[in-house]
Amino acid sequence: MDSAPLPDLDGLDREALKALLIKHQEELLSLAASHEDQLRSLEAELESQRHILSEQGQELRSSSEQIEHLKLVIEKLRRRVFGVKSEKIVIQLEQLELHLEELESSQAEMEAAVERVRPAAEPKTRSRRKPLPEHLPREVVSHTLHGDSCPDCGGQLRQFGEDVSEQLEYIPDSFKVIRHVRPKFACSGCERVVEAPAPSRPIERGLAGPGLLAHVLVSKFADHLPLYRQSEIYARQGVEIERSTLAGWVGGASELLAPLINAIQRHVLAGAKLHADDTPMPVLAPGSGKTKTGRLWTYVRDDRPAGEDTAPAVWFAYSQDRKGEHPRQHLKNFKGGLQADAYAGFHHLYGDGAIYEVACWAHARRKFHEIHAIHASPTTTEALARIGALYAIEEEVRGKPADLRLSVRQARATPLLEDMRKWMEKSLRSLSAKSETAGAIRYALSRWRALTRYTDDGLLEIDNSAAERALRAVALGRKNYLFAGSDCGGERAAAMYSLIGSAKLNGLDPELYLRTVLSQIPDHPISRIHQLLPWNLALSLQTQSSQAA
């Protein structure tokens, strides 16, 4: 607003001066009112801008959270997708090969079970075998009689011939033929024909020796070579063994070893603490050519980290789905601590207190680590450092007696855990509820009692790594041969994983262990089957291995 020039004040009278002052005062008041209106308008505009900025800030935070979430999801998917085959024809062919293997193995297993219960009066007709290759070295084993007199009349025996049968055996990286020779004697008094009894074979009238059977089983279930691939490998060594023959051997061996699997199961479930986990196992659905998702459950008994000398062992079980009724059936006679993940199927086991939950810090740590690997933050860094401090304490007490572990944990780990809980609760209040980090913290806090239970019992472990280690062999096999050919194949795999895994836990070469067992079990009383468990053969087999080396 422009002001008019002032008149000559000396020439104005009193009334004129008064009128002039009133006029200027009105002008000042009008100017002040105008400035006040402008100020109010500016304040309203500023408040509007503040509201807009607030909304934009919320949208930005939400957008950042979505970006980080998508990065995490994409990274997880990349890790899952990496290495997946895309050759559909190859996969379909492998499906058919595996399905056929499982059917043939199942048939052989059922036949072996029937023959053991009700031996046939006459050997059943079999297709004519190809003669064993002449280029293979022969080892002659003679089975002679004890004494030289007839068992009926005591007359003098004279040899007039011999029975010869051959057995294909496998020595690591090579084959040989064992020629079993049984001299035949005729009694000079009563003309009775006498010879030494034929040696027992792992599979009745089977061609495979225990070493070859053990090699086939370990190749399939430990080295993850399907039988059709093994057949191709043996053919390159000049020995033609049909896939169907190998499948029959696997089925027969599985039936023979079943009592040993049952003994391992009883030993595992007799402990006061178990490690449990499960993993998907694709299985070929009958008649559809597609796969369904079965489940392998693993239960590990291993108290060596607590200074116990009880033998470690692992028992696998197969089921057609992941329903909670399966672990309930598996663990119906178990009482004690169950170290497992947060799978809901385990939760109903904790109702009556006979089984109590022990959670896994490795699972809790993994959630922070996955976020940290993609987008590190002060919160994930501190979470990993705090969990690492707990593991440092465990490293010091591993293998120590349970009472010592308990006292150290309560003195050192318990205060760290209590401080961590308070830190997590405080951190959670400052994080967005939708953030991945907040989710990781909620996972830990919601299972806090189960996560800290290991500090109340020196026998318990900080995590479930024992079960996860047992499942690595399954994961490798699943990647190599993709799936099992049938539900029977899944059950057979579970049984063999139990034997091979338990042998490894006891420091044994699985192939040497199975070769020893298969050579003894045909004549071994089932009432003393425990004598063939891995830990009961460990000393002699370890000595044998060291001498061979």
At a glance:
The protein has 549 residues and is α/β, with parallel strands linked by helices. It has helices at residues 14-81, 88-117, 210-221, 227-236, 243-269, 325-330, 344-347, 361-374, 378-397, 402-430, 436-446, 448-452, 465-481, 487-505, 510-520, 534-548, and strands at 138-142, 157-171, 174-187, 193-194, 273-284, 291-301, 313-319, 336-339, 355-358.
If you had to describe this structure to a student in words, what would you say it looks like?
Helices cover 54% and strands 13% of the residues. It is an alpha/beta fold and 549 residues long. The protein has a five-stranded mixed β-sheet with strand order 7-6-5-8-9. Helix 2 crosses helix 5 and helix 8 runs antiparallel to helix 11.
SSE map:
Elements: H1 14-81, H2 88-117, E1 138-142, E2 157-171, E3 174-187, E4 193-194, H3 210-221, H4 227-236, H5 243-269, E5 273-284, E6 291-301, E7 313-319, H6 325-330, E8 336-339, H7 344-347, E9 355-358, H8 361-374, H9 378-397, H10 402-430, H11 436-446, H12 448-452, H13 465-481, H14 487-505, H15 510-520, H16 534-548
Parallel strand pairs: 1-3, 5-8, 8-9
Antiparallel strand pairs: 2-3, 3-4, 5-6, 6-7
Helix pairs in contact: 2-5, 3-15, 5-14, 8-9, 8-11, 9-10, 10-11, 14-15
Mean pLDDT: 84
Provide the β-strand percentage band. 5-15%
Number of helices: 16
Reported for the largest beta sheet, the result is: 5 strands, mixed
Features:
549 residues, alpha/beta, four-stranded mixed β-sheet, 16 helices, 54% helix
